Amino acid sequence: MSLSLYNTLTRKKEEFQPVHPPQVGVYLCGPTVYSEAHLGNARGPVVFDVLTRYLRHLQYQVRYVRNITDVGHLESDADTGEDKMEKAARAARIEPMQVAQHFTNRYRQHMLSLGCLPPDIEPQASGHIIEQIQVIEEIIGNGLAYEVNGSVYFDVPKYDEEGKRYGKLSNRSIEDQMANSRAGLEGQSEKRSPLDFALWKKASPEHIMRWPSPWGEGFPGWHLECSAMSRKYLGDLSDIHGGGLDLMFPHHECEIAQSQGSHSHTDEARFWVHNNMITVNGTKMSKSLGNFVLLGDMFKGPTGPLAFGYSPMVVRFFLLQAHYRSPVDVSDDALQAARKGYRKLMNGLRLLDRLTADSFSSDVIRDRTVAPLAEGRQPDTAAGDAELRKLVADVFVGLNDDLNTARAIASLFNLLRKFNTLAATTATMATVSSAALTEAVDAYRAVVSDILGLQDEPRANAEELLKLTLEFYTEAKAEKAYDKVDTIRAALKSQGIVIKDTKAGVEWAYSEE
Q: Which residues define the annotated binding site for Zn(2+)?
């Protein structure tokens, strides 16, 4: 079964076929770095991290691009209000680029904590002004944009008249959009149509972030950066472009219009992939609604609607236990259930070590070979092998079916139950061959660790464990149990820690050897 993905553009699942196999270009719309990332900001990166990992598992050569927005994202989608970066900078009385750098660093730290591999390229909007100006000039040259008082707007009605159909990604007709648009907002008088959107905005005298352009000093519109950077690093037509469902309109809709309006004349990406929202009590998690949970606070806890803190790997599992196109409602009950599921998979990884170490001990070999051979026949493992291989195949059925991690995880639990049964006795172990067991063990480890990106987290506090160990050492020394004393000393030394017996008591230090 080959990989299929749900394409928002066609509204159906399609078999994934790269534009230029085996190369695959993936673009994820990243964060606007004016504040701390919240849980909702993490779902897209986790989903696309798994997608990228799985594509590489399938032997594709992936170039994964995730952008950083540090200019041009105004408070309103109607091209009005302050730039979010400048507003944050004014509040903190620092430079906008200080705000951008600080929250970019924080975002990267959180993504690494969640097990997300760094993107191959992470371009920033402010570093690609030249490319964005070039795209604007191409669109103007094709008659689909116009300049007014130093600002440039995309002409949506004219674009639609040419048969391009603005709204095809979000399945909206231009007539409905016109009926629902609101005229008379700040700056709207410049536009020929309320549907037109900014490609370049003239900077007001107080605007800090500004660049020279053929139309005067200003800054690019929010939607423009992704069209320019995607084309620069992935070509006119990439394989997969996506982000949160809330970006489908207007952001991604405008991207398609910009790409078609420039020289490329393509939909920018073959597949448009959107993950659903995180909700709190059924309402979309949003900073504007004040119901968000910051990732840093969530890892420590308690915060917002959560009475406890949750480790990054538990949060990652929580996000993956639902299909990416389904909403996920955050609550302590849901996260505690996710923690149990995550720990069950981690216990499975530890079981694999015991299975591979003990599976073919002398007792098992004797049960499998010596006794059957005495009766003149070989052990029959065909049925057991077939069952085990079907359990493995079911895991990949889920992954291939639109990256259904929920189904894949359920199949992993079924496979884990089989492992537990096999590990129970040598008799059950003898029902499968070494080849089938090795295949299953390798598949479980690959899916859990390499594809889903779930890693074991230490749950013990190192300081508390060291304190407890020193107490055992002190007791052993008082009881003159010198064999235990030597054992504890040696064990700690192997970890780079030396015990010092002083007049004040037992102390420890890092080994300098």
A: 29, 226, 251, 255
Binding residues: 29, 226, 251, 255, 287
Pairing between β-strand 283-284 and β-strand 278-280 as defined by DSSP bridges = antiparallel
- CA atoms 224, 226, 232, 234: torsion sign: negative
Pseudo-torsion of CA 220, 223, 226, 232, nearest 10°? Answer: -50
Residue ranges of the annotated binding site for ATP are 287
316 touches 453 (CB < 8 A)? yes
pLDDT in tens, 163-214: 788 999 999 888 778 766 654 444 457 899 999 999 999 999 888 899 999 9
Lowest mean pLDDT among 121-125, 248-252, 373-377, 379-383: 373-377
Counting Cβ atoms within 10 Å, is residue 168 exposed (0-12), middle (13-18) or buried (19+)? middle
Q: Do residues 55 and 108 lie in contact, with contact meaning Cβ atoms separated by under 8 Å?
A: no
Q: How far apart are CA 49 and CA 54, in angstroms?
A: 9
Number of H helices, E strands in the chain: 19, 15
Q: What is the pTM of this model?
A: 0.88
